[in-house]
Write a structure and sequence with these properties.
Strand content: 5-15%
Order of helices and strands: HHHHHHHHHHHHHHHHEEEE
Helix content: 55-70%
Largest sheet: 4 strands, antiparallel
Strand order of the largest sheet: 1-2-3-4
Distance between the termini: 95 Å
Length: 456
């Protein structure tokens, strides 16, 4: 009932208060949202962050006491629920949270006391500050100490039970949990150390047995790993360390041989890249294994030649298909595999030279081409005079033809829209517009720049 009471008070205040975009007010809004969800402890910390950012935030000052009382009530109710079910760990953590809340509220009260002494505020705000300063911390240290003892005792008893059933790993965990609440606690430290040793010894024996079984099955890599794990639990356990090293060497030799044979098989099938990888994998297990280093280098070069030829041929096919941008990439890839391969760089440059300009550049090219005027045919019914002051307003691509390899140009059918001045006589000029479909040839000039020329 107490939480509900404070909840109504808080929501009434929330309804009356506004917000803005400062760090303090952002945290205030988060506190409001947490309150609406009934998460009062979270709301308390968010409200505290709001005041830490701006100690004079009137909205948060007014809201804070109600949040604090609700948070205390909520957390104490949770603790009582945990105690009723002998959940001593959660009860202990609940008291820890109340101690933390006490510290947070105390810090805010100290900051606010200084603020109140040095700042002139209204009577209403002074009363809100007074309410916040009068929040009483909950003295739970004695209760927390008692719950700590219960938690430690519960884990201690649990540890003894696990030890009796020879589950030494679980026993070790329980004794350590007991010590996390009270240290020292009875003989929990000695029991934790003893149970850990017994658990490690049991695991060392288990993995040693796994290793011996793997040896019998000729799984030498698995045997090496198992013996290494055995030695990790109890360093120096029997001859586990020596056996781990022994079977690692055997497994490395086996895997090096397997990868080497795989490399030979792949090389016979002209899979040079995969063969080189297999020989390198062989060296990863046993450095300097047979002549794997020389074979890896040989087949890497063979793979590079193979890939360079493949990309060069693809580039040539793409040139024939007038896919110049893709062709350029293929020639460049060929050159990356073998620098200086044939004329790959020259072909890449040639392919890029022929890549047509992007459509958005066409307007500028057409505008440049009509600096000296446009044909009268663009004006339809006009048959005399000459044009000047041509302004192209838009160019729409209707169709792009195939590349003319002989004369090296791209044909375009374009819809050109714009305005111009028509000088019909010395004293007569006419402002007119045009909207016409024309054919252009787009090519590179002697300096490599794109130009557009009206087709004759």
């Amino acid at each position: 009932m107490r939480i509900i009471k404070y909840g109504f008070i808080i929501f009434g205040i929330v309804f009356l208060l506004g917000g803005c975009a400062t760090v303090s007010d952002k945290q205030f809004k988060l506190a409001q949202q947490s309150m609406e969800k009934g998460a009062y402890v979270q709301a308390l910390y968010q409200a505290a962050q709001s005041l830490q950012a701006e100690i004079g935030n009137d909205k948060t000052i007014a809201l804070f006491p109600g949040i604090a009382e609700s948070a205390y009530a909520q957390k104490l109710a949770d603790i009582e629920q945990y105690k009723s079910t002998s959940n001593w760990d959660s009860a202990a953590y609940g008291y820890d949270r109340i101690v933390s809340m006490n510290q947070t509220i105390g810090n805010i009260q100290r900051m606010l006391a200084v603020y109140g002494q040095n700042t002139k505020v209204s009577k209403l705000n002074r009363e809100a500050i007074s309410r916040l300063l009068n929040i009483k911390a909950r003295n739970v240290e004695g209760q927390r100490d008692n719950i700590y003892k219960k938690a430690a005792q519960a884990h201690y008893v649990s540890g003894k039970r696990y030890a009796s059933s020879q589950d030494y790993r679980a026993a070790n965990s329980e004794f350590k949990k007991a010590l996390s609440f009270i240290n020292p606690f009875k003989d929990a430290s000695e029991r934790a150390e003893k149970s850990k040793h017994r658990a490690d010894l049991a695991d060392a024996k288990k993995y040693y047995g796994h290793g011996m079984q793997a040896v019998d099955n000729q799984h030498h890599r698995a045997a090496s790993i198992a013996f290494a794990q055995s030695d990790a639990f109890i360093h120096g356990f029997r001859d586990a360390h020596a056996l781990a090293a022994k079977y690692k060497d055997i497994a490395d030799q086996e895997d090096a041989s397997s990868r080497y044979q795989e490399g030979e098989r792949l090389a016979k099938n002209n899979q040079y890249r995969a063969a080189a990888s297999a020989f390198n994998a062989s060296l990863a297990f046993v450095p300097s294994y047979r002549n794997a280093y020389e074979l890896a280098a040989r087949y890497t070069k063979a793979a590079n030649r193979q890939d360079a030829r493949s990309h060069y041929r693809q580039g040539m096919r793409l040139m024939d298909q007038q896919k110049f941008e893709l062709a350029a990439r293929e020639f460049e890839r060929a050159n990356r595999f073998i620098p200086g391969f044939r004329d790959a760089i020259i072909m890449a440059e040639r392919a890029r030279y022929f890549i047509p300009p992007r459509s958005f550049k066409l307007k500028g090219l057409v505008q440049e081409s009509v600096q000296q005027g446009i044909p009268l045919s663009w004006l339809h019914d006009v048959h005399q005079g000459y044009t000047e002051e041509v302004n192209i307003t838009s160019v729409d691509l209707i169709k792009q033809g195939g590349f003319n390899e002989l004369r090296e140009f791209w044909p375009y059918k374009l819809r050109v829209i714009g305005t111009c001045e028509l000088e019909m006589s010395k004293d007569k000029k006419l402002k007119t517009s045009f909207n016409t479909v024309v054919t252009y040839r787009v090519f590179r000039d002697d300096f490599g720049d794109w130009k557009a020329k009206l087709r004759d």
